[in-house]
């Protein structure tokens, strides 16, 4: 893959609608990319799918390979990373985790639109005719909104329950997210 930075400006032209292969959700950390991805897939699982990640972590007794993760050795994963076979990868608690490009291809081959939530720097890998991404930028709420959430949590005793406070305060943005889900669902129509 080319190591050049992502272009800040890209010329665009009006095109007739066509079926996209990949939806890429991009946004700041904690803005709800994964939640939106999961809601979109549960909204229409016959139309949308997501790639399963790979990990070098040992498989647990209650897990099945290929259900939540693909389990591979660290050596195999490191070799594949060196061969640029991963969209993104990272290390956590001494184990590698990553999204292999072949898993995106498998979702597309199954006839589903592949939904990916990734960091913006990986768009240069996906911005190809093979993946034809429809990129959705998820903006964070205004800073004032976070201040209101903080105050609401403090006054209603949710000090340590960040998710509950966040979920309740974010409900104001629910209609905007619902419209986003509807527009994403219409991509394949």
Automatic annotation (TrEMBL):
Residues 20-189 form the Guanylate kinase-like domain. InterPro entries: GK/Ca_channel_bsu (IPR008145), Guanylate_kin-like_dom (IPR008144), Guanylate_kinase_CS (IPR020590), MAGUK (IPR050716), P-loop_NTPase (IPR027417). It comes from the Eukaryota. Signal peptide: none annotated. This is Guanylate kinase-like domain-containing protein. It comes from Amblyomma americanum.
